[in-house]
Design a protein that fits this description.
There is one protein chain. The protein is of the alpha+beta class. The protein has a domain of 182 residues: FAD/NAD(P)-binding domain (3-Layer(bba) Sandwich). The chain contains 11 helices and 20 strands. The strands form 4 sheets. The protein has an 8-stranded mixed β-sheet. Helix 1 links the parallel strand 1 and strand 2. Helix 1 runs parallel beside helix 6 and helix 1 runs parallel beside helix 10. The radius of gyration is 21 Å and the shape is globular. The model has no long low-confidence stretch (mean pLDDT 94). The structure holds flavin-adenine dinucleotide. The site of flavin-adenine dinucleotide (FAD) has 43 residues, from helix 1, strand 2, helix 2, strand 14 and strand 17.
């Protein structure tokens, strides 16, 4: 049996693909409903990455190609492929867009200011329009999966390996599993995972009632969705801070509302619901998908690893991670979960770009340079 810890989009997708591969799966979360963490706060825009090419853009766009097909086939009621317009943030960014174009995911259209105005946007120089992109109903997708797979409410406080099994302990209860997948988002304190450099970034989203009919979604340094049933979503992740309430300061959305008003008629926006959540990123911004290194054993058995040699990594038996999806959890999660399920059930090798081992050696070498590191 595999226990997946965390019922955000990463854990839900992992549980779904593992179950479909024939595995017995238990999905657990401290909350009784899925998407109680960062996933529930997400605007859940599913669009390609733009930029000057490179491995992260290629991987993101591979994941996007998989994700938009997956959502359309599996969750047609919860994925809205209205297209997403990527708008330059400022004049400098407008220049950069010219360099980005050869690397764009296809199909795309180049829009000018007039075309953007026809879509209800003002003061917008244009941008790249991706017609296959859209936004997902984050909670609806996670809750559908939770219903299909089953969700057990449990806060895992401790993980222990005993007699070839994992024992997961929570308040007054315990679960046993042959295999555990950690999909706990920015919270990564069940084991020593420092080498992965998981960091969080707070963000907020507001859902507003409006009479404005925006036919498309757009993304600048914030995201504004198309109108659906008289509502739009407005959101961004932007704040590095360990606690949410201080940064929200009671008005987490004031800044975003001002930005949205520059490009759209927001006069009648009425805030209906506010969400606040944390997204997690790995040290190199690539997803983390695969086995977890037993740091304590590795440093004890190969103390010289901090100075250069490359011994084979020692992994915790039966322990895997799916995390570090950054600001693109809804883009990455389906493909990353499928790759993890194929690895676990068919032995398909993991793509080195997402393999967590890639981060260990550099971290270990830094350890030897940082005296007093815990
Ligand atoms: C405001 C905002 C806007 C965003 N917009 C987008 C967007 O437009 N498009 C996009 O693709 N992505 C977006 N993201 C990013 C996306 O939300 C994240 O990448 C994604 O949610 C990460 O999912 P996750 O499952 O890894 O983590 P989470 O959703 O945080 O899930 C982790 C889960 O683990 C549970 N958990 C943790 N520890 C334990 C424990 N010990 N025991 C039991 N349960 C535990 C938590 O309760 C939580 O439910 C946005 C994020 C935010 C915050």
């Amino acid at each position: 049996m595999t226990v997946v810890v965390g019922a955000g989009v990463a854990g839900c997708m992992a549980a779904l693909f593992l179950r479909e591969a024939g595995e017995e799966v238990t999905l657990v979360d401290r909350s009784h409903i899925p998407a109680g963490g960062g996933s529930g706060a997400a605007g859940a825009f599913v669009s390609p990455k733009i930029g000057k090419g490179g491995p992260l853009q290629e991987l993101t766009n591979e994941a996007f190609a998989f994700a938009h097909r997956f959502y359309r086939e599996r969750f047609p009621h919860a994925f809205h492929a209205t297209g997403v317009l990527r708008i330059p943030k400022n004049l400098e960014d407008e220049e950069r867009f010219r360099l980005y174009e050869p690397f764009n995911h296809r199909p795309y259209e180049v829009w000018d200011a007039v075309r953007a105005e026809q879509a209800g946007l003002r003061n917008v120089p244009g941008g790249f329009f991706f017609p296959e992109a859209g936004d997902a109903d984050a909670q609806e997708i996670c809750r559908s999966i939770g219903k299909e797979v089953g969700l057990r409410q449990m806060e895992v406080e401790n993980l222990e390996r005993r007699e070839e099994r994992w024992i997961l302990r929570g308040a007054g209860e315990a679960l046993e599993a042959e295999r555990v997948v950690l999909a706990t988002g920015y919270e990564s304190d069940l084991l020593d995972l420092r080498y992965l450099g998981i960091k969080g970034l707070w963000g907020s989203r507001g859902d507003y009632a409006t009479s404005q009919e925006f036919p498309i979604s757009c993304h600048k340094d914030f995201s504004l969705s198309s109108t659906r049933e008289g509502r739009v979503k407005l959101g961004a992740t932007h704040v590095k801070h360990p606690t949410p309430c201080l940064v929200c300061d009671g008005r987490p959305l004031a800044n975003l509302e001002a930005k949205a008003a520059e490009i759209a008629e927001t006069g009648d926006f009425r805030l209906v619901e506010t969400f606040c959540g944390m997204r997690s990123t790995s040290r190199d911004h690539f997803p983390l998908v695969g086995p977890v290194i037993d740091v304590e054993r590795m440093l004890a058995e190969h103390p010289a690893v901090t100075r250069g040699p490359r011994p084979d990594p020692i992994h915790h038996d039966g322990l895997y991670i799916l995390n570090g999806l950054g600001g693109r959890g809804f883009v990455f999660a389906p493909l990353m979960a499928r790759w993890l399920a194929e690895h676990l059930t068919e032995g398909r090798p993991l793509d080195p770009r997402i393999h967590p081992d890639r981060l260990f050696r550099k971290w270990a070498r830094r350890l030897s340079q940082t005296k007093g590191t815990k």
